[in-house]
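Internal tracking record. Fields below are filled automatically when a chain is submitted to the structure queue. Please do not edit lines marked as system-generated. If the sequence contains nonstandard residues, flag them in the REMARKS field before resubmitting.
Queue: standard
Priority: normal
Entity type: single polypeptide chain
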Amino acid sequence: MAAVNAHLAAMYESYLFSEVDRRVQAYRAENPQKRLLRLGIGDVSRPLAPAVVDALVGAAEEMGQAQSFRGYGPTRGYPFLLQAIIEREYEPVGVKLSQEDVFVSDGAKTDMAALQELFAPDAVAAVCDPVYPVYTDANRMAGRKIVLLPCSQEDGFCPPLPRERVDFLYLCSPNNPTGAALTYAQAARFVDYALENGVALLFDAAYSAYISESGRPKSIFEIQGAKEVAVETGSFSKSAGFTGLRCAWTVVPRENRFGLNALWARRAAAKMNGVSYPVQRAAQAALETPGWEQSRENVRYYMENAKILLGAAEKAGFCTWGGKDAPYLWVKCPDGMSGWEWFDVLLQNKGMICTPGEGFGSCGKGFVRFSAFASREETQEAAARLSEG
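SYSTEM-GENERATED OUTPUT FOLLOWS
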């Protein structure tokens, strides 16, 4: 009998969004004529920018010609995309990188799940609670000890520093699910802690394009000393609508004191053959004018959705967070309900789909997350239903 991964086998039977989908499908079966408003999963609804589509089509046509056909590309990514990432995402905020610091992949989720492989089997991970499930799930699959950092509404859902020894620590800013974005001072506190205690920071910046308030870093590398201890992932999924194309990047500075740049490069060489050429050309177009401006228009569209939802929730008297630097609203459930209880109420009574906070950790109990990635029409209708209380 083949031995299976006991850690994986012992995990929760149903993944968060699978359970949401199960309940939604049951509702649909009983109410086939009713319209559902989807404010649950964080998937985009707007099409790709025209410049991105042109680049994708052009690169696909290149692949059909003998003189321009390409096979396996560079494992870390084509130089044209590496340079575009550096020039658009990092140079404007004063961060200097070389192409050797950047790695292209098929998704930030993929990389955030894989980064734990760089550490010893007995290394301890610190994870915020509530948090996007991939951080905890990846470490549970590996059988690691996980130290949870409880986030509370009293602290604006900013995580505390660990009280026990850990080896690496996940941060997500703007945060999914709470929408909270770290200030410079808060980010610097974590960098100082990591430098003093020899801890690696794994920083998820997938939603950095949505930061609008001043005083909040878009990259952890804006903080002095971060290059020594931090790794950062960025994504085209929510900033440029690549949820169906799949492209992201991870920055592992060569200055990293733990030698993670060489380790990540070796892992990449062993486990992947890179992202397809057409997708990388499309990603390049998303970072260059006019693709950048077209993609920013989509970001503004989603943030206007968030503003509409936030106004409706506040009008109804709900306690809310997020919606200003992130396309998510984090809302406290009324009448002491759990997230799953309010999820069912909203589904059954208002035809609205949200995400229960319990799916993001024990500190998410009593909250739900609303996504602003629906169409404007759906968002306005959801706001009208939500403002009724």
